[in-house]
Amino acid sequence: MIGSRRTFLKGIAALPLATGGFGLQAIAQPSNVASAAAQVPPILLVHGNGDHAPLWMTTMWRMETNGIPRDRLFAINFTDPLARSDDAVAQQGRSSTEDQRRELGDAIKALKARTGAPRVALVGNSRGGNSIRSYIKNGGGGDVSHAVLCGVPNHGIYASDGGLGAEFNGKGPFLSGLNEGDTEVTAGTAFLTLRSDGMDKYAQPDGRFIGKPGTPTGITFEGPALKGATNLVLGAVDHRETAFSPRAFREIYKFIAGHEPARIAITPEVEVRLSGLVTGTPGGVQTNRPVAGASVEIYRVSPDTGERMGGPIHASKTGADGRWGPVQVEPTWYLEMVLTEPGAPITHLYRSPFPRSSDIVHLRAAKPLAAADAGVGAVVMMSRPRGYFGLPRDIVLLDGKEPSDVKHGVPADSVTTVRLPAAEAGRAVPAIFNLERIVARAWPASENRVTIAELTY
Question: FRET label pair with 347: which of 61, 197, 252, 425, CA 20 to 30 Å apart?
Answer without folding.
Answer: 61
